[in-house]
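Extended Data, panel c. Modelled sequence:
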Amino acid sequence: MEDRGSQVLLIEADRVLRDLILLALEREGVTAIHASEPDQAVSLSAHHRPVVVLLDLLSSYADGLNLIRDIRANLPQESSVVVISSLAFDEVVRQVVRAGANDFILKPLDVSVLVDKVRKAIAAQRNLTRQKQQEQVARLVEEPLPGERSAASQADIHRWVPGILNAAGTS
């Protein structure tokens, strides 16, 4: 799953669990950063704008919900927030989703489930990026070039597409 551009932010206070998750992600070729404190997590989410945030709900439930909201405010809409918690009551899950989480993983943690969810979130974000690029190219086909009366020719599009994809960071 090598993807050097993908970045995961892991928010986990338990050092042993954090190291286990980071090792599993590293083995999958995923770039991950981590935070153990809420303030550090909010700062890292604003600076790195990760594709996926893995967040342990923390010991203080209300603070965990506020942390989800604060982090979600820093992220692009297409980023995923996945909560890890042993609090699997229906009301807790509903409040976590209302706060901005996209998914929930129950403790005790199955690392293979976590890695699978990260893989799917990265793939979904990659597909969304590809779709946006295709829409941009489609607009170029439909719109005339500045100073011209007709839409771009197929030859023009073939010249532009590699530049558009390179500028967007894909090829």
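The longest strand covers residues 3-11. This feature is highlighted in the accompanying rendering.
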